[in-house]
Amino acid sequence: MKRTKIINRLVFSLGTVLAVLYAFPFFLVIVNSVKEKREIRNDPLSITLEPLWENFSEAIRRMDYWQSLINSIFITTFSVVAIIITSSLLAYYLARNNSRFSSITFVILVASMIVPFQALMIPFVGLFGSLGILSSQPSLVFFYVGFGVAMSTFLYHGFIKNIPFELDEAASIDGASSFMTFRKIIFPMLSPVTATVAIINALWIWNDYLLPSLVLVQDDRTLPLRTYVFYGTYTSDYGLAMAGLLISMIPIIIFYFMMQKRIIAGISAGAVK
Amino acid sequence: MASSTAKKIAAAKKFGIFALIPLAIFSIVLIVPFIRGIYFTFTDWDGFDYNNFVGFDNYAASLADEKFWAAIWLTFAYVAASLILVNVVAFGLALIVTLPLRGTTFLRTFFFVPNLIGGVILGLIWQFIFGQALPTISETFELPIFTENWLLSTETAFWSLVIVTVWQMSGYMMIIYITGLMSIEKDVLEAALIDGATGWRTLALIKIPLMAQAFTISLFLTLRNTFMAYDVNLALTGGGPYRTTELISMHVFKEAFGFGFFATGQSQAVLMFLMIAVAAITQVIISKRAEVQR
Fold first, then answer.
1. Domain CATH number, residue A100
2. In a domain, A96, yes or no
3. Domain encompassing residue A103
4. A37 inside domain
5. Which of A142, B14, B51, B124 is most buried, judging by how many CB atoms fall within 10 Å of its CB?
6. Is A239 within a domain?
């Protein structure tokens, strides 16, 4: 028993070393975000005694930070809500209709999950570009529903199948329409899956780069797109870039610490399905 | 007769309320571009219009493109290296943080947080680390390994991509492995202990087989995500030096939107889809078989 304890301690120390390694990039970003270029060149590890807060105000200005943050929040929230509504409705329909149409639709939805976005993006831009509906936030929300509905429907479907059909029947005998049954009885029971669906989609949409880079123009841009302005300025001003990257990361990290338990539970529930 | 018509109307109404809108959006956004995309690969499409059918010419041109082959081999190497390293590291981390000790929850947070941040931001952070921070630090402490900027030569740039991928994805896969480890029933482990099984034997003969499903899922997700990787590639190496670290995804993007070869770009994208489909299905079949055999 003693031996296992020692081994456990050793393994735990290894874990601590690894945790320090994992945190190292964040440490570098934080300490260098308030430094001058010359200081960074000389010693990227040092902690400065005269923080250069102007890096932050300049980064906020260059990224149009507040506007991009609002854009990101707006797009993520509306897309996630729309995905929850559409995919729970569709999943309920597919799970409760044992027709051939339902099973074929379900198979197509599942199969579509391995289609990479890259296989769609070229005709996608050709099609929607020529219709003139690219370059606006509502269309981006519409596209996210299209790309996100398959996996979310799949998650809901697995859960709804396990809800006894007798519940629906009882509601229908009491005179509830099928929509009322769904809204008042089924949907409230789905809240664990709804949490999973919300979290998985929110993380994806918040961080997505390729699709919004094809759809959005200037003022509508989200945080990840705006952060990319620092790609070119890199060689000229590291401190500014680090400040910009830091403020781009802060919102999602705050969100994580507020929702930590739910996020972890959401990911493990999503993976088991 | 009347009742069957009424039934049909009721069914149509249900379809209209529940399924019509989701399926319409899904079809417009995903199915239509997918089918049109395949159709266009057989034409001389220029992004807007086409005049002729060209048969398999676009595919022939794709396969004759040396840069495309280079991107394919590079992607295979990248997927293989990431698949192994991400999962070995993630499983190791899961074992560490499930030890019966205090402080493990705290460690979990450290391992998980990189995953929350998007590929572009991560790529930019690591560009600074490989390009500026590590060379300076190596000089100060006289470490031989990072004195050169790793992003400036092909081989080290490739490993930089892998390192960033492991750092980004291992925390997510760790959660899946933790879920797997926690799902093993305590009685089974106690029985093994009574039978005299030691740590390693319990791990190899009991834990791993009982959580095989976690491996299936984690391998599948790693495979899919690394095959499609774009953001980190873009922000870390940008394909350089001299287009030698372009993964398939970036190659397709440049072919179409950079050089304007929409039809060949799209046929390369279709080939990419086929590769992912074959790899993913093969992996799932192999893993499922391994799951059943236990």
1. 1.10.3720.10
2. yes
3. 65-226+249-271
4. no
5. B124
6. no
CA distance A137 to chain B (A): 15
pTM comes to 0.91
Please report the sign of the dihedral spanned by the C-alpha atoms of residue B263, residue B268, residue B271, residue B273. Answer: negative
ipTM for the predicted complex comes to 0.89
As for how many domains chain A has, the answer is 1
Going by pLDDT thresholds of 50, 70 and 90, the confidence category of residue B169 is very high
- pLDDT, averaged in runs of 10, over chain A (273 residues): 79 93 94 86 80 88 92 96 97 92 93 90 83 79 94 93 89 88 92 91 93 84 87 71 92 91 84 62
pLDDT value for A182: 92
SS3 content of chain A, % helix, strand, coil (to 5): 80, 0, 20
Q: How far apart (Å, rounded) are the C-alpha atoms in residues B178 and B180?
A: 5
Average pLDDT of span B174-181: 92
Q: Which residue of A has its CA nearest to B121?
A: A245
pLDDT digits (tens, 9 = 90+) for B196-212: 777 777 888 888 888 88
Residues of chain B neighbouring A90 (CB-CB closer than 8 A):
18-19, 22-23
In a domain, A219, yes or no: yes
* Chain A residues within an 8 Å CB radius of B18: 89-90, 92-93, 178-179, 182
Task: B251-259: list long-range contacts, CB under 8 Å, 24+ apart.
Answer: B251/B67, B251/B68, B251/B71, B252/A118, B252/A122, B253/A118, B253/A121, B255/B68, B256/A122, B256/B47, B257/A122, B257/A125
